[in-house]
Structure formats: structure tokens, C-alpha cells
Amino acid sequence: MFGKTVLVTEGNHGIGKAIAVNLARQGAHVVICAPTQGVGQASVEDIRRVAGSSSVDLIVADLSLQSDTHRAASEFKSRFSRLDVLVNNASAFAPSRRLTVDGVEQTFASNHLSYFVLTRDLLEPLISSAPSHIINVASEAHRRASMRWQDLQFASGRYSGWCSYAQSRLANLLFTYELARRLRGKGVDVSAHDPGVITAGLGQAVGGPIAWLARLALPFFLSPDQAATAISRVVTSSGRGGESGHYYVRGNEVPSSPVSYCVASQRKLWALSEALTLAASSSAGAPSAQSLSEGDS
Q1: Candidates 3.20.20.70, 3.40.50.720, 3.30.470.20, 3.40.1190.10; correct CATH number of 5-296?
Q2: What does pTM read for this prediction?
Q3: So where are the chain's domains?
Q4: Can you name the residues that pair with 33 across neighbouring β-strands?
Q5: H or E element: which one contains 33?
Q6: Radius of gyration over alpha carbons of the chain, in Å?
Q7: Strand pairing of 246-249 and 252-253?
């Protein structure tokens, strides 16, 4: 990883921080995204200390907000000359329905649209740095989901935090496969990864008996370091061809759910994501829609 530049979102805690440490140890120049300056700078200092590397930098952004995501991408491109690996990492879970300032349901905005917007905005350095790799952190929870095309943001009817979370994770797979197809031949590998259930922050998002049962199961779960090692192994082997458009669980390639392979759904989600994000506004420096058109697939 010497000479490689890696951007890890939510790199201030959990699996994101562990990935940052792991790749910094291997010689990568690691940049993390964190929501606040105080939290982010403390995490940078911690990563530098644990990894024994001074090549760790910070971009402050709340990636559930589209304006922050565009700004983070612009800041990255102004500060760094290349991008070899983008790790889209998010783990939002909202027990009750909340909207971002963009008017988008919180879980969908954090777990899917942040991936979509940031990736679109950073395609230029990813392509120019090829062979490069986009890692979308996903979850086996996608297997219990279907896309609610008529009510994607749970605006009507009863809201379920678990259903919203699972849908956002299915969106991760649909986005990964569509992006891999559109980037074919451009030297950018795209893959989705479920790192496994990790111990960091377990049970904090929900309370009651679920959190209690989760704590009982702790001995069977992975530490963030164990999960990060599996993802990092795929990252360090990228660029050799054949990795794009695949799904990994704990570092092992596996098939995802049957519905995730529906090309019509992949393309429909892409179009809806463009509509919800104003096609990753060209004012933020994103590539035009033509640069990733279906004609490239």
C-alpha cells in the first residue's frame, strides 16, 4: 500500500477506524471522514499512534447531508492528487423516522445516498489513479429486504427501523452491481463487503431485550480489527482484475440475495438516486451523467 491514498468514511470509530489503522500500518496515506473536528482530530491522532504512521489526515463532513458530501469531495480533490481506494462506510440505524435537511429519510440518506453522492463526485481521481478500488460496506441484512419502490422513504404507513435499515443495505448491493457495470473497462474495481457483526457499539442503536441479547452473543462476534483485516485483504489484492462487482462476507466471496441481481432494479435505483441528489450537482464538480451512462455498461 506504499504510495496509495485511501479515503475511509466514518473513519473515526468502529470498522472504519480499524480499516484506517490496518491500511496505515501497510504504508497507505489514509484520509478519514468524521462528522466533527474534535472527534475527527482525536481519531486521527489515535490512528497515527496505533498504526505508527504520520500519514493520516482528516476531512470533516456529515455525509448524511448532501451539501457536506459535495464539499468533502471537493476538499479531497483540492488537497490530494490521487485516490486509490474509496471505502464507503456507514452504519446508520434510526428507530423512528427522521428526515435530513435534504428531506430524505435518515437511514437511506446515510447508508445509501452518501455512497452514491461521494462516489460520483470522486470518480475523476479514482479513474485517473487506476487500478483503483471502491469498497461499499454492506450487510447480510439485505437478504431480508425488498425495495419499497412506491414508498422508498416510509412516508406513508408504519415505519420500521429494521425494514429501513435492511432496505438501505439492499440498496448497497444494487448500487455496487450497477456501478461495477458502468465502470467496466475504466480500471476501477467495485465490491460490497459485509464485515460481520462487530463488537464496537453493539446494542447502542437500540435498547431493550435486543441490546441485552446482543451483549450475550458478544463472544461469537468479531472485533473491529478482525473485520477490518478481511476487508483490507481484498483491498490490497485489488487491481489484478476479476474483483469487480462481487460481494464478500468476512472476506469470502459469496452470492448476495437473488433480488440484488435484478438489473432493472439496479438501474431504477440509480435513476431514483440521481433524482434525489439532483444528479450529484455539477456545481460540486461531479462528472456529467453522460460519463457514467448506461451506454458504458
Answers
A1: 3.40.50.720
A2: 0.86
A3: 5-296
A4: 59
A5: strand 29-34
A6: 18
A7: antiparallel
Kindly name the residue from 165, 177, 247, 248 that is annotated as catalytic: 165
Indicate the range of 6-10, 173-177, 209-213 predicted with least confidence. 209-213
Q: Are 73 and 97 in contact (CB under 8 A)?
A: no
C-alpha cell at 146: 425488498
CB atoms under 10 Å from CB of 224, counted, come to: 21
Q: Can you say whether the dihedral through the CA atoms of 158, 164, 166, 172 is positive or negative?
A: positive
* Type of residue numbered 135: I
Q: Does the annotation mark 177 as catalytic?
A: no
Residue 91: predicted pLDDT: 84
Cβ distance 13 to 43 under 8 Å? yes
Taking alpha carbons only, the member of 35, 42, 39, 50 closest to residue 224 is: 50
Q: Is residue 261 a contact partner of residue 177, using CB atoms and an 8 Å limit? A: yes
**C-alpha to C-alpha distances, 126 to 44, 83, 229, nearest whole angstrom:** 23, 5, 23
